[in-house]
Design a protein that fits this description.
Largest sheet: 5 strands, parallel
InterPro entries: Cytidylate_kin, Cytidylate_kinase_dom, P-loop_NTPase
Structural class: alpha/beta
Number of domains: 1
Pfam families: Cytidylate_kin
CATH class: Alpha Beta
CATH topology: Rossmann fold
Bound molecules: cytidine-5'-monophosphate
Subcellular location: Cytoplasm
Strand content: 15-25%
Number of strands: 8
Strand order of the largest sheet: 2-6-1-7-8
Catalytic activity: dCMP + ATP = dCDP + ADP; CMP + ATP = CDP + ADP
Main location: cytoplasm
Helix content: 40-55%
Amino acid sequence: MKKPVIAIDGYSSTGKSSISKIIAEKLGIVHLDTGALYRGITWFALQNCLDKEGEIDLNKLFNSLQSIKLEFKRENDELVLYVNEINVSKEIRTAEVSDHVSLIAKQKEVRDFLLETQRSIARNEGVIMDGRDIGTVVLPTADFKFFLTASIKERTKRRYEELLSLGLPADRNQVKENLIERDRIDSEREISPLKKAVDAIEIDNSNLTKSQTIEAILYHLKKIN
Ligand code: C5P
């Protein structure tokens, strides 16, 4: 049987990646956390493309894009992102990267560069991809599409706890402001804005545990099959 292609989109910190990872394991398909790719590019820009004022020089970044090698490697049962052979799995979760990623992600050059990377992964096999524009742009013909939402209070709590579990500095208010600002930039941008695909199933998981959200998704996958 053909393995399914599944798109999971939604707001920041609705659990998209951790939920997708578990579903991928259950179904024996590949999982791609596309947010990590945007974060990887942002980390690279902060390391290599700053101007004299310490701001990201976008032209410098655009000229460097083709030289950036993004790779996921499996380590201790986790997919770990490498940028030009450097393990950046922790660095891409820092507040500095979170504060800049949406500005980098709205650039056409960056989106075009990552579009091909994402589509080539889905070409030959079943995949579950999570992000902001998967159901609308990256995989518009996906077999299943979901759109996750949750209250800002709940999302702040989840992101704050995630940062603490990674041993990264975390401030609740700063986390909340960052989520609101990223959602705003992601929803309002011109190219591939964050929005629910017309044929996506929306799940508000404010009051659901991670397992309950997974159950809800699996229920729909079975029902449609
Ligand atoms: O999913 P995560 O919160 O790690 O994504 C970080 C940022 O990457 C998002 O806020 C958004 O700006 C960008 N992104 C995107 N399109 C995707 C995935 C992520 O623009 N498909």
